[in-house]
Each structure stands twice: as structure tokens, then as C-alpha cells.
Write a structure and sequence with these properties.
mainly alpha; 4 helices; 88% helix; elongated
């Protein structure tokens, strides 16, 4: 099932790239200009949140009772190091 979905995504991206190359940059610019401004702003905000989401997912995996004391010591040490 995963192979089928991966192939479908690759095929979709290949079709978009093929037609973008075939039609040229003027046609791609027209399509991008047709997208409303609120969508552009929403995408800009969302791309800014991606690193935060990744860090939160990593922290969720790493922080548990076994490693809690390490993280509780690392945060103050990081602040001390940055202040010097």
C-alpha cells in the first residue's frame, strides 16, 4: 500500500514538473498570480511553523521519565553558557 501511494505522489509531481517545463515560466507565473493573497500568507505562516512542529515531535519522543533529569539539567546549563 505504501508503494502505491509513494508512486502516486511521485507521478503527480512528475506531471506538474513536466507541464511546468512544457508551458514555460510565463504560464507558471500566471498560475501563481491567480492564487489569492490569503493563501500565500497562510503558506508563509505554515512554513514558519514546520521547524517548531519538528522540534516538538522530537521532544515528545525523547522526553520521558528515564531522561527527565538530563533535560532538566541541560536547560539551565544552556542559559548559563549563552550568558557568557
Amino acid at each position: 500500500m505504501h508503494l502505491i501511494s509513494g508512486f502516486g505522489l511521485s507521478l503527480m509531481l512528475a506531471i506538474i514538473v513536466f507541464f511546468s517545463y512544457l508551458l514555460g515560466s510565463n504560464a507558471v507565473s500566471l498560475v501563481l498570480q491567480a492564487i489569492p493573497e490569503f493563501i500565500h500568507k497562510g503558506l508563509a505562516i505554515t512554513t514558519g511553523l514546520i521547524p517548531t512542529l519538528g522540534f516538538a515531535m522530537l521532544a515528545k519522543l525523547l522526553i520521558n521519565k528515564k531522561f527527565y533529569h538530563i533535560f532538566s539539567l541541560a536547560l539551565p546549563l544552556q542559559f548559563i553558557q549563552k550568558s557568557h
